[in-house]
Specification:
394 residues; alpha/beta; Archaeosine Trna-guanine Transglycosylase, Chain: A, domain 4; Rossmann fold; 7-stranded mixed sheet
């Protein structure tokens, strides 16, 4: 029998607006003794059922799975995964011969809070961000195989670094289905090695696909610098776009090896590309003035929580100021923040401050965001995390 969470009077308002989080301060009392990851029922102060979700320890006490009084089982996950796949079909990502790389499930954006699933050809990489989704991983895998059919041969579970460390689950990454080591997937006709075993996120930054395509359109005849290159996605698109030269920089030597592998996979023996294992700030400081007229700044999250916000904004300002100082006149800067704790206005202010410090004339050409396979639940605006600007610098 699931435990029942009783809310304080007036604390059901956000749930009636379909927000999928219940904070610990909203809880009046609990019937039962739920363990972290258990499915719980939630009732208003009047005893009326209002939601079912996963119980967890922390500020967010319940992640809501449904506002209907239904069982959370394999059938439930199958229905939600079918709905997610239909969205990807409707936007032309699933069943596309030129693109077998996309996000199938984006947490709250697909009404499955705590769950991420990325598709790389015949392999799905599943990532749990809550103990509840970790507990349900076998049900998710069964439903996923059922929904995807024969196109799916492997399911790799990669949650070592995303589960709450206090839960002490001792989780190890590994295959829930299959075990094929073929790690090459296709995005918009380009091929990439996907390091789902040891790589960041699920092995590739799927969320920059549309922005990489935009960069390709601006690359012809330009000298391109891709900072924080990781797998080199922007670098590969710049090469196809006709860049004169492309330099990729990352502090990780393993990332530099991976970007070189991806360049060779698509442009073997092409002399236009060179990669450097170097600290980003040091590279920007020491690089030659006017060496590049297209620069990409796509750093890792500077702020993973609100407490780090002030230092993060300083970091974004400092980083962009260096790029403004060094970029050639008439150059284009693609600059991003993937920090959920930093909102669009704060990021834009940091970039504005950097531009003012440099004294350059700057125009905004595009305001960028996450793609359609990373949908934002309209009742959960916190799901909007990727911010970007494309700037013309005189």
């Amino acid at each position: 029998m699931p435990s029942i969470i009783h809310l304080k009077p007036g604390k059901d308002d956000s749930l009636r607006r379909f927000h999928p989080w219940i904070f610990s301060g909203a809880i009046h009392h609990i019937e039962g003794k739920p363990q972290e990851g258990d499915v719980v029922r939630v009732c208003t102060a009047n005893g009326e059922f209002i939601a079912v979700g996963h119980w967890q320890i922390g500020t967010i006490a319940v992640r809501v799975l449904s506002f209907e009084n239904e069982n959370i089982d394999t059938s439930f996950f199958k229905q939600r995964l079918n709905a997610a796949l239909n969205v990807r079909r409707s936007i032309g990502l699933a069943d596309n011969p030129q693109n077998d790389t996309y996000r199938l499930v984006h947490g709250e954006g697909d009404n499955l809070p705590g769950l991420v699933i990325d598709i790389y050809g015949p392999t799905a990489v599943v990532q749990a961000h809550s103990v509840g989704m970790h507990v349900c991983r076998q049900q998710v895998a069964e439903a996923l195989k059922d929904v995807m059919g024969d196109r799916l041969q492997n399911i790799f579970y990669k949650s070592e670094t995303t589960l709450p460390f206090k839960a002490d689950l001792g989780q190890e990454n590994g295959f829930l289905l299959g075990g094929d080591a073929n790690d090459v997937a296709m995005e918009n006709g380009l091929r990439f090695h996907i390091d789902w075993l040891r790589g960041q996120k699920t092995g590739f930054f799927v969320d920059q696909r549309d922005n990489r395509s935009l960069l390709e359109r601006y690359s012809r005849g330009r000298s391109v610098l891709n900072m924080f290159c990781y797998t080199g996605g922007f670098s590969v698109y710049a090469m196809r776009g006709g860049a004169k030269l492309v330099h990729s920089v990352d502090s990780s030597a393993k990332a530099v090896d991976l970007v070189n592998d991806n360049i060779r996979l698509n442009f073997p023996d092409d002399p236009r590309h060179e990669a450097f294992a170097e600290d980003a700030f040091r590279f920007l400081q020491q690089m030659q003035q006017d060496a590049y007229d297209l620069i990409i700044l796509d750093p890792p999250a500077f702020a993973k929580h609100k407490d780090a916000l002030r230092n993060a904004l300083k970091g974004y300002t400092r980083l962009n100021a260096r790029a403004f100082e060094k970029i050639r006149s008439g150059g284009i800067l693609f600059t991003f923040s993937c920090s959920q704790a930093v909102n669009k206005d704060q990021f834009r202010m940091a970039v504005f401050t950097a531009a003012a410090q440099s004294g350059r004339s700057v125009r905004i050409l595009h305001q960028l965001h996450q793609p359609a396979d990373h949908p934002v639940n309209i009742y959960h605006p916190e799901g909007e995390y990727l911010k970007g600007l494309v700037l013309y610098v005189e």
